[in-house]
Specification:
Chain lengths: 181, 331, 313
């Protein structure tokens, strides 16, 4: 037990603040995503991600993960956890390979995910940054926009709740801001 | 005035219908339409479902087949027209004379609208299309001033549809080859402008650079936002000065002109944005529905509400809005 | 196409001088056309296609010039305004079309509409967007006698169209010059001088070959010519065809302010088979304001300057 805590502290010391990579069940995210988009994967609609690496960076809080499509499954891993990907534009750290990198705040990603916000709007307002293969980004954006409601009732329920939570949080924040004046 | 809203996919179509569009316009998932973007547009099955959804709620569906085919690809445009007719769409939006001719021959009952890509800027040009193809409506390029627009509406043999909101194209639609000069693909030939496949962003000591097929479109300092490198919206050097020599990213917004447009006799307001998300379509359709209803109830007393403008501004490129060619001093 | 070159005179293309796209002062224009009268060009396009405010020559001047050139044995065509916006422009267009002494090049469907109603034959300009045989057939029925290929089309597209061209319709390709790429309601020349379009002071007179626009790393990119945007590089068909001119009926050369006699002579040599395209193109390269390009004809991005292809079938 003591050694386990010791390992955690050690890992947290390295790199960015937030959850240590080993504690995050990436494989679970991958499985959930594959289930959510099973029909699309089967229909070849996610082929643009096959063996390409999409890096998502949530900044704040400073947390990143890589997504790819391999052998008919969406896979999520810690940054650098997948084979393949192009070397990132020069001037960056060595060893970083991805085809497309999207950076944005976790709140904005949640708004995107719950259809409360439009990706272009976030882009214009500088709240979302895209680097690397622009065409891949466009495929991704258009793919996500075209998704209808989840077929599985549980997923639908979860997404509705998530949307409600985001809206509630924003109303609360706006209210707090107003009351502070 | 009819509210004509864009839809790049099924969720967007449903958004438009649910929030009060009078008609939605869509395209097939190929280069037969002028928004041929990776992953955008409708398969036949999706179009079928979209038409069903819209018609059940009294909303019309227009299909854009508005690019210019060449000899090699011609059979695909012919097939697209026939598929659209077979699916029961309410109108075909086309620009190419050959496409219109084929539609008259093979789908005579399908209404034909002249696309903005047809580049008709005068009543006389409209007359040509009316005479040959019995078009039921014309969508005007965004280059005319309000006064010029009034003239065209007055003299036009067919009802007129104008763009009321969305990203602005500074060049007259249908005759711009800038994109194919730089990338080999243009709106006319491939349904794209400044295609994503030609875009590269690079960090350099001089700043963040955006390039289109290798041509430097713009360069950004640390505080500056890197916009999509649409090539006419870059910064260039002319007469020793650097700046937006052609155009800067701006959006069109004619909300305040609604009473005047209605009085003029404009038949429909078109919202640009098939490449935008269902969220955009929902937000914009809701505002314009409310505005059109308010204007119809009391044209003399119509004032755009601040909350409407706030929503429109928030989804706009450059977060600026301008009357575009409608407002003379912009030129 | 005959791989063995030397075209017989019967299949040799005519040379046309396109309308002057820039704003030149009256004397420059008149001197230019005096040269043209003695040049090997058979066809001359006259008139203002870019901006109705340019009035170096009045209507009577143009007509007098037309008659002189016709007397010198040239086929004269009046080219119409490409972008019609104001009512006054529509009225000028009607007046232009009323005079049936000379053929009109229709650059907008408004002109086609007027000419068709009057039963007059016309030349279909490149901006009418006739990209394939079916659309060409419709315009042929409307009275089109010569079709000018849209500038972004390739050798392949030309061949496909030519194979299906009606007997009554001749073909013309843009063979030389800065490519007109776009039109706008905004005047970019005025904007470059911080002037509104309504008070432009005709600053475009300063730029006999248009106003150069460079990228931020100093490359010549585009040219601003009032409401028209052009390529900086001059398209040169000689740099794209190994064996000689393609089987078009007319090759159009778009005037630049200097060296036109040499350019005309080079194209005349080319069509007569007196010299090869590669050699002639190299000779002209230094005479071009921003060098040449040949991308469109070869099916690539227009701005490309690609090596001459190996002999094609």
């Amino acid at each position: 037990m003591a050694s386990f805590r010791g390992v955690d502290r050690e890992k947290r010391g390295r790199g960015s603040p937030g959850l240590p990579p080993s504690a995050v069940p990436f494989f679970l995210f991958g499985a959930l995503l594959s289930r959510r988009f099973a029909r699309a994967i089967a229909g070849g609609e996610l082929d643009f991600l096959r063996d390409r690496i999409l890096r998502v960076v949530l900044q704040p809080p400073g947390f990143a993960f890589d997504v790819t499509l391999r052998e008919g499954q969406l896979r999520v891993a810690a940054p650098g956890g997948h084979a393949g990907g192009k070397r990132e534009p020069r001037g960056q750290r060595r060893g970083e390979r991805w085809d497309l990198r999207i950076t944005g705040g976790v709140r904005d990603f949640l708004r995107l995910a719950t259809r409360l916000e439009d990706a272009d709007t976030l882009f214009f307002q500088r709240r979302l940054k895209m680097e690397g293969d622009t065409e891949l980004g466009l495929y991704l954006k258009n793919f996500l926009d075209a998704q209808e409601e989840a077929e599985q009732a549980l997923t639908r329920f979860a997404e509705d709740k998530l949307r409600g939570a985001v809206m509630l949080l924003e109303r609360f924040e706006n209210g707090t801001r107003l009351s502070r004046r | 005035m009819e509210l004509v809203c864009p839809a790049g996919n099924l969720p967007a179509l449903k958004s438009a219908v649910d929030h009060g569009a009078g008609a939605v316009y869509i395209g097939f998932r190929d280069d037969t339409n002028a928004r041929h973007f990776a992953g955008l547009n409708f398969t036949d099955r999706q179009m079928e479902e979209g038409i069903r959804y819209a018609h059940a709620r009294g909303v019309r569906v227009f299909v854009a087949i508005n690019t210019y085919p060449q000899a090699a690809g011609w059979p695909r445009w012919q097939a697209a027209v026939e598929r659209a007719a077979g699916l029961g769409v309410d109108a075909l939006i086309a620009a190419d004379v050959g496409v219109l001719d084929h539609a008259c021959e093979r789908a005579p009952d399908l209404h034909r609208h002249l696309s903005v890509q047809g580049s008709a800027t005068s009543a006389e040009a409209i007359r040509f299309y009316h005479r040959h193809f019995d078009i039921r409506r014309v969508v005007l390029p965004r280059v005319l001033s309000l006064r010029q627009l009034r003239r065209v509406v007055l003299d036009s043999p067919v009802p007129v549809e104008v763009f009321g909101f969305g990203s602005l194209c500074v060049m007259v639609e249908g005759r711009c080859l800038l994109s194919s000069y730089v990338t080999g693909q243009s709106p006319n030939t491939c349904g794209v402008c400044s295609p994503a496949s030609a875009v590269r962003w690079e960090e350099t000591p001089a700043g963040r650079e955006s390039r289109l097929n290798g041509v430097l479109i713009d360069r950004y300092g640390p505080g500056e936002h890197a916009a999509y490198p649409t090539l006419c919206k870059g910064r260039f050097e002319v007469r020793g000065q650097t700046g937006y020599a052609i155009e800067q990213p701006t959006s069109l917004n004619t909300l305040a002109l609604l009473p005047e447009l209605a009085e003029m006799g404009v038949a429909a307001i078109k919202i640009e944005g098939r490449q935008r998300s269902p969220a955009y379509v929902a937000q914009v359709t809701r505002v314009w529905r409310a505005a059109l209803d308010a204007c119809a109830r009391d044209p003399a007393g119509f004032r755009p509400r601040p909350d409407w403008q706030a929503v429109l501004q928030s989804v706009s490129e450059g977060a600026q809005t301008t009357f575009g060619a409608y407002h003379r001093s912009w030129q | 196409m005959n791989m063995n070159d030397t075209h017989s005179p019967a299949s040799m293309p005519g040379l046309a001088l396109g309308p002057v796209l820039y704003h030149w002062p009256r004397e420059t224009v008149l001197d230019f056309y005096a040269m043209v009268a003695d040049s090997p060009a058979e066809i001359v396009y006259l008139g203002e296609t870019v901006c109705a405010k340019r009035r170096s020559l009045r209507r009577d001047d143009w007509l007098a010039l037309a008659r002189e050139l016709a007397a010198a044995g040239k086929e004269v065509v009046f080219s119409s305004l490409a972008l019609i916006e104001a009512d006054s422009e529509l009225r000028s267009l009607r007046r232009l079309c009323e005079d049936d002494a000379f053929t009109i090049e229709a650059n907008d469907m408004a002109a086609v509409s007027i000419l068709e109603e009057r039963g007059l034959p016309f030349v279909a300009g490149a901006t009418l967007n006739l990209y394939h045989p079916r659309s060409i057939a419709v315009l042929a029925r409307a009275g089109m006698r010569r079709w000018v290929m849209p500038l972004e089309l390739s050798r392949r597209a030309f061949a496909d169209i030519r194979a299906a061209l009606p007997e009554t319709v001749a073909s013309e390709v843009f063979a030389f010059g800065r490519l007109p790429l776009a039109y706008s309601a905004r005047c970019f020349t005025a904007r470059a001088h911080d002037l509104p379009k309504d008070d432009c002071q005709l600053r475009c007179l300063d730029d006999p070959d248009g106003l150069l626009l460079k990228t931020r790393e100093g490359d010549d990119f585009l040219v601003l010519n009032g409401i028209q945007t052009q390529s900086a590089r001059s398209f040169n068909l000689m740099a794209a065809e190994v064996t000689g001119p393609p089987p078009a009926d007319v090759l159009r050369l778009s005037p630049q302010s200097r060296h036109m006699p040499a350019i005309l002579a080079a194209f005349d040599d080319w069509r007569h088979g007196r010299a090869g395209g590669r050699e002639l193109a190299a000779r002209l390269e230094d005479l071009l304001p921003s060098g040449s390009c040949n991308g469109y004809w070869l099916g690539e991005a227009g701005m490309q300057r690609l090596p001459m292809p190996a002999a094609q079938a």
